[in-house]
UniProtKB/TrEMBL annotation:
<dbReference type="InterPro" id="IPR022644">
    <property type="entry name" value="De-COase2_N"/>
</dbReference>
<keyword id="KW-0456">Lyase</keyword>
<dbReference type="InterPro" id="IPR002986">
    <property type="entry name" value="DAP_deCOOHase_LysA"/>
</dbReference>
<feature type="domain" description="Orn/DAP/Arg decarboxylase 2 N-terminal">
    <location>
        <begin position="26"/>
        <end position="271"/>
    </location>
</feature>
<feature type="binding site">
    <location>
        <begin position="264"/>
        <end position="267"/>
    </location>
    <ligand>
        <name>pyridoxal 5'-phosphate</name>
    </ligand>
</feature>
<feature type="binding site">
    <location>
        <position position="362"/>
    </location>
    <ligand>
        <name>substrate</name>
    </ligand>
</feature>
<comment type="function">
    <text>Specifically catalyzes the decarboxylation of meso-diaminopimelate (meso-DAP) to L-lysine.</text>
</comment>
<dbReference type="Pfam" id="PF02784">
    <property type="entry name" value="Orn_Arg_deC_N"/>
</dbReference>
<dbReference type="InterPro" id="IPR000183">
    <property type="entry name" value="Orn/DAP/Arg_de-COase"/>
</dbReference>
<dbReference type="GO" id="GO:0030170">
    <property type="term" value="F:pyridoxal phosphate binding"/>
</dbReference>
<comment type="pathway">
    <text>Amino-acid biosynthesis; L-lysine biosynthesis via DAP pathway; L-lysine from DL-2,6-diaminopimelate: step 1/1.</text>
</comment>
<dbReference type="GO" id="GO:0009089">
    <property type="term" value="P:lysine biosynthetic process via diaminopimelate"/>
</dbReference>
<dbReference type="InterPro" id="IPR009006">
    <property type="entry name" value="Ala_racemase/Decarboxylase_C"/>
</dbReference>
<keyword id="KW-0028">Amino-acid biosynthesis</keyword>
<dbReference type="InterPro" id="IPR022657">
    <property type="entry name" value="De-COase2_CS"/>
</dbReference>
<keyword id="KW-0457">Lysine biosynthesis</keyword>
<keyword id="KW-0663">Pyridoxal phosphate</keyword>
């Protein structure tokens, strides 16, 4: 079944993000079933898409929230997530953001350095609280994904390097306003090679044993997010294989009796539910290629320009019987404002509607107003 634009949207001003809430609910249902079967707690990563209609459905499905800024913590609270279902991660939490999360009494801070632990301890003490922390370690495991979204290698800024872990644990012992509740690791995003999660599990197992030898029992293990989706063929795989993802950890993570395992999924929950709908402004034939120039650009969807990523492109209104290849580009004054080169489409003309698929995650949230572009207004169906 391929993408179909509802008739009442054909004349709607473009560009806009269209979200299929039916698909979101089916995805949440599948995720819930797989998570329950493996007794794993899911925190949805708001950074992927923080629109309220999306968050409300995620919250109603019983999942928690993984936040990376004070504003995301606030948005999660506004969407109805209970504070004890909220995790706050991020390599650069400001004092104001930490204070907001402390005041809300969120469940856990994923701390990324000794210095952050010291600040968190001081701010928690000033509020007369004891903050729950998980140490985010940098396990030096290659996620085999784009280097811009690889987060678990020594060269990356994220997490506590393994060589710094002994000193960090020692430091923690001197910080009375913090309570160590677990370990956290997140090695990257758009991971399609699941063997990577096996390697991550082995690393966490080693660290857990090491901490136990020091007398720490960890009630929680948080293995991050990262499950990838099928950008090439969204209609074949509208819902990612959550069961296989959980099974990778189920088989390899040494879980202690009563220990709670957490994941933080973003992309795999929302990516396939969103489509960027755009209109062809001009078709320009140059000596080398045909350009289909859209009214959406890198300002609405930056992933192709930033990561060279591919989103499936469809002409949803053309009735032409012949196909042609196009470089599908946006209107922004940057040559990187290109959604795809040599894309085969039915013959395309001014006014045709173009769907850029799998754009529900890291699409609208990463949009900008560069060139003084207008912010788009999302449409929800289902
Ligand atoms: C710490 C952390 N948790 C969770 C996520 C969500 O990742 P994804 O959208 O790949 O599931 C990210 C993003 O990569 C992250 O940095
Ligand atoms: N923005 C990235 C994902 C980043 C994940 C957060 N660490 C993307 O569009 O693929």
């Amino acid at each position: 079944m391929s993408f179909h634009l509802p008739a009442d949207l054909l004349d709607r001003p473009t560009p806009y993000y269209l979200y299929d809430l039916n698909l979101l609910e089916r995805t949440l249902h599948m995720l819930q079933q797989a998570a329950q079967a493996h007794n794993v707690q899911v925190h949805y990563a708001l950074k992927a898409n923080a629109n309220l209609p999306v968050l409300e459905r995620v919250q109603q499905a019983g999942f928690g929230a993984d936040c990376v800024s004070g504003n995301e913590v606030q948005r999660a609270l506004d969407a109805g997530f209970a504070p004890d279902h909220i995790v706050f991660a991020g390599v650069g939490k400001s004092d104001a953001e930490i204070n907001l999360a402390l005041t809300a009494d969120i469940w856990c801070f994923n701390a990324e350095s000794g210095q952050e632990l010291e600040v968190l301890n001081e701010l928690a003490g000033a509020q007369g609280r004891r903050a729950r922390v998980a140490l985010r370690v940098n396990p030096n495991v290659d996620a085999h994904t784009h280097h811009y979204i690889t987060t678990g290698l020594d060269a990356n800024k994220f997490g506590i390097n393994l060589s710094d872990l002994p000193a960090t644990v020692e430091l923690l012992e001197s910080l009375p306003h913090l309570e160590l509740v677990g370990l956290h690791a997140h090695i990257g995003s758009q991971i399609t090679n699941l063997s990577v999660f096996e390697q991550l599990s082995h690393k966490i197992n080693e660290l857990q044993t090491w901490l136990e030898d020091k007398g720490y029992q960890l009630p929680h293990l948080n293995v991050g997010g990262g499950l990838g989706i099928n950008y090439d063929d969204p209609d074949t795989d509208p819902i990612p294989d959550f069961e296989a993802y959980f099974a990778a950890f189920g088989q390899h993570l040494h879980r202690r009796a009563g220990q709670q395992v957490h994941v933080e999924l973003g992309r795999s929950v929302v990516a396939q539910c969103g489509t960027l709908v755009s209109r062809v402004l001009y078709v320009k034939q140059s000596q080398q290629t045909n350009f289909a120039i859209l009214d959406a650009g890198m300002t609405e969807l930056i992933r192709p320009a930033l990561y060279g990523s591919h989103h499936h492109i469809q002409n949803v209104t053309s009735t032409a019987k012949t196909d042609k290849t196009y470089d599908v580009v946006g209107p922004i004054c940057e040559s990187s404002d290109t959604f795809g080169k040599g894309i085969l489409l039915p013959e395309t003309k001014r006014g045709d509607l173009i769907a850029l698929r799998s754009a529900g995650a890291y699409g609208e949230v990463m949009s900008s107003e560069y060139n003084l572009r207008e912010k788009t207004t999302p449409v929800y169906v289902g």
